[in-house]
């Protein structure tokens, strides 16, 4: 079927808005994660909402303003509007701090803070892209501007599976079939971002399958949106002959590049008194390309934002189209690459913060020049572009630039976890370099985390199984680092899972009560019952029960919430029999927390095992009940 409504309507109709889950960002990275809905944030706080491109920040901010009786404004409009014209005392919901970076104050966070003081320090919410927020370092001035209210930074989490299913149904697709197409196209990492999900739905609704990369997805979606005129808008071009698709996309890219590079809001059909506009005369002073520009504005690539004024439907699409236009100027018209770099970086060694997305797409769309470009902003290319089609030389340059970045800034990912698409680094051409990073001691911090995430999400590299096994078993590596190596190891194992099984059994040999209980639990719930048996489960229970309460804390979630559902139907009696004769049941309790967690698992299994018990097996039942009694003993010890 064809999607007749525009992208904005689908976002409003299908996204949960204030029901979206967010994670509170704690400066203490070892603190327990706190996840809640936007709707559940306290009323008397100021909120910083960080979200990846296309994650739905604008939709959430607009809904929040409506729900809480506030004023919704883009940051650029807020800074331009006199304080006396703003509703006094009303909460402010200020969207897109990152888009106020170009052409505005050197640090818009400072400018926003000053304007908030002028407005009497009202309650506010502020949204921004994580990468750009980290570059601004504006937390202190905004906390001061919040007055007596705390400033709570939150990260907008990706859509969960239920949200995705609702979104897909609203797009007219059958979820199971659509998800199969996404998996076959290897686009699963893009599934939980509203904007890329919307683009995939647009493409899938036309039939013919999905493209196999993020770049190809944007290319295909842009072509489709350009060919489809917006039904709510009359044709804007004069002739009856519609421009060729390439000419229309070039015109759209020209308009988007002008808006982004000049920091303007909209394209105006006529000369405008609004300094935030670019007119058609500005874009086409000779009038030779007017029909293509008007056709682009009449397509679904743009939205009407006033009488005779048009803005791109979404910034990420505008960045792609602008980069496509600039790349074609370089490859087809001989425009010097250094001129493009000058436009995007100015006098600085890296792109302007507001132009990082545009720069990342330029690097992506100029693969022959990528080796040079990625050195200017390696993490931005990973966060906003698509290096999956880079050749070996560009990938080596990208990894080397990340290493240089970590040497300059060991915390370059601070507050930006999860937004980069690192899977492209999992290339056989980089296997040796990746191994060298993982074998470095002391543990190389955030660069190693980038490598582990790449190996978890990207192509399986069996040649790194031994290295990843060593990381999981190495007590000199932080437990977080060892835990991060587990999904990378499982992916690298591909068709032969035996190395991961061997690592699990080696972990069980560690008799230190403060040892790797959480690591073993994480492997257990992923390997059992397909690759581990009842004996392994019994060995794990003995190992886990001997651990300290502190060491078992992180493992208890795996044990209590995930293990019961992993035990196959019919296997419950054998598991309970194996546990009933272990020392932590028949003898002294080694410690409180671990045995209580095991007892709660046994309680869940007992309910399923009782129908299988024969009338003459009372002694067997007594043994099972003794496992549960360890939980009661725990409570007695705690009371004493």
Quick rundown:
By secondary structure, the protein is of the alpha/beta class.
SSE topology:
Layout: H1 7-14, E1 21-24, E2 35-37, E3 46-50, H2 57-67, E4 71-74, H3 75-80, E5 92-95, H4 108-118, E6 124-128, H5 130-136, H6 139-145, E7 151-156, H7 161-170, H8 175-184, H9 194-204, H10 214-227, H11 245-261, E8 266-268, E9 277-279, H12 280-283, H13 290-298, E10 302-306, E11 309-312, H14 315-333, H15 337-345, H16 356-365, H17 370-373, H18 378-384, H19 392-408, H20 431-439, H21 445-457, H22 465-473, H23 479-493, H24 498-507, H25 517-527, H26 534-545, H27 549-552, H28 556-566, H29 572-580, H30 583-586, H31 592-609, H32 618-639
Parallel strand pairs: 3-6, 3-7, 4-5, 5-6, 8-9
Antiparallel strand pairs: 1-2, 1-7, 8-11, 10-11
Explain what you see.
- The chain is of the alpha/beta class and 640 residues long.
- The protein has 32 helices and eleven strands.
- It has a seven-stranded mixed beta sheet with strand order 2-1-7-3-6-5-4.
- Helix 21 packs parallel to helix 23.
- The N terminus and C terminus are likely disordered.
**Widest sheet: strand order?**
2-1-7-3-6-5-4
Largest sheet: 7 strands, mixed
Given the structure, what is the number of helices? 32
N-end to C-end Cα span: 67 Å
- The helix/strand class is alpha/beta
Radius of gyration: 28 Å
- Outline type: globular
β-sheet strand percentage: 5-15%
Q: How much is the average pLDDT?
A: 86
Number of separate strands: 11
Q: Helical residue percent?
A: 40-55%
Low-pLDDT segments, ≥5 res = 1-13, 633-640
């Amino acid at each position: 079927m064809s999607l007749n409504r525009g992208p904005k309507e689908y976002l409003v109709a299908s996204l949960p808005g204030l029901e979206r889950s967010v994670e509170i960002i704690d400066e203490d990275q070892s603190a327990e994660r706190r996840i809640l809905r936007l709707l559940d944030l306290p009323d008397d706080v100021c909120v910083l909402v960080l979200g990846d491109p296309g994650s739905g920040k604008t939709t959430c901010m607009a809904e929040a303003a409506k729900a809480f009786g506030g004023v919704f404004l883009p940051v650029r409009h807020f800074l331009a509007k006199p304080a006396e014209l703003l509703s006094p005392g009303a909460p402010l919901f200020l969207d897109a701090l990152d888009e106020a970076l170009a052409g505005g104050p050197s640090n818009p966070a400072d400018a926003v803070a000053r304007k908030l003081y002028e407005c009497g320090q009202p309650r506010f919410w502020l949204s921004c892209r994580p990468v750009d927020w980290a570059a601004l370092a504006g937390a202190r001035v905004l906390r001061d501007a919040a007055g007596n209210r705390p400033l709570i930074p939150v990260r907008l989490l990706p859509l969960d599976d239920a949200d995705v299913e609702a979104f897909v149904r609203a797009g007219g697709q059958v979820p199971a079939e659509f998800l199969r197409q996404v998996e076959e196209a290897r686009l699963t990492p893009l599934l939980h971002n509203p904007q890329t999900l919307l683009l995939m739905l647009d493409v899938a609704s036309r039939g013919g399958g999905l493209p196999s990369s993020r770049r190809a997805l944007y290319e295909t979606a842009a072509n489709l949106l350009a060919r489809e005129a917006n039904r709510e808008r009359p044709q804007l071009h004069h002739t009856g002959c519609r421009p060729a698709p390439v000419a229309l996309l070039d015109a759209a890219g020209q308009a988007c590049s002008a808006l982004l590079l000049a920091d303007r809001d909209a394209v105006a059909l006529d000369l405008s008194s609004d300094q935030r506009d670019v007119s058609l005369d500005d874009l086409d002073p000779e009038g030779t390309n007017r029909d293509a520009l008007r056709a682009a504005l009449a397509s679904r690539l743009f939205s009407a934002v006033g009488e005779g004024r048009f803005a791109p439907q979404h910034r990420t699409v505008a960045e792609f189209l602008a980069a496509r236009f600039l790349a074609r100027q370089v490859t087809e018209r001989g425009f010097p690459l250094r001129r493009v770099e000058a436009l995007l970086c100015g006098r600085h060694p890296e792109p302007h913060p507001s132009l990082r997305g545009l720069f990342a797409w330029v690097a992506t769309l100029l693969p022959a020049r990528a080796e040079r470009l990625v050195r200017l902003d390696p993490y931005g290319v990973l966060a906003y572009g698509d290096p999956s089609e880079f050749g070996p030389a560009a990938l080596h340059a990208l990894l080397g630039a990340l290493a240089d970045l970590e040497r300059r800034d060991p915390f370059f990912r601070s507050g930006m976890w999860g937004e980069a698409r690192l899977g492209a680094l999992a290339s056989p051409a980089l296997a040796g370099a990746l191994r060298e990073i993982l074998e470095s001691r002391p543990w190389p911090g955030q660069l190693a985390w980038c490598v582990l995430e790449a190996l978890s999400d990207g192509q399986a590299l069996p040649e790194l199984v031994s290295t990843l096994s060593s990381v999981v078993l190495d007590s000199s590596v932080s437990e977080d680092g060892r835990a991060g190596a587990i999904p990378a190891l499982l992916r690298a194992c591909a068709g032969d899972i035996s190395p991961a099984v061997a690592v699990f059994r080696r972990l069980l040999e560690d008799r230190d009560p403060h040892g790797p209980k959480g690591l073993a639990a994480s492997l257990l719930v992923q390997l059992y019952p397909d690759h581990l048996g009842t004996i392994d489960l019994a060995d794990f229970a003995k190992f886990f029960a001997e651990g300290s309460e502190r060491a078992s804390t992180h493992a208890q979630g795996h044990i209590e919430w995930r293990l019961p559902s992993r035990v196959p139907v019919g296997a419950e009696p054998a598991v309970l029999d194996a546990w009933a004769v272990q020392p932590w049941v028949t003898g002294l309790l080694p410690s409180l927390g671990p045995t209580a967690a095991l007892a709660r698992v046994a309680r869940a299994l007992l309910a399923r095992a009782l129908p299988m018990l024969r009338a003459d097996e009372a002694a067997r039942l007594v043994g099972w009940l003794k496992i549960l009694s360890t939980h009661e003993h725990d409570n007695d010890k705690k009371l004493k």
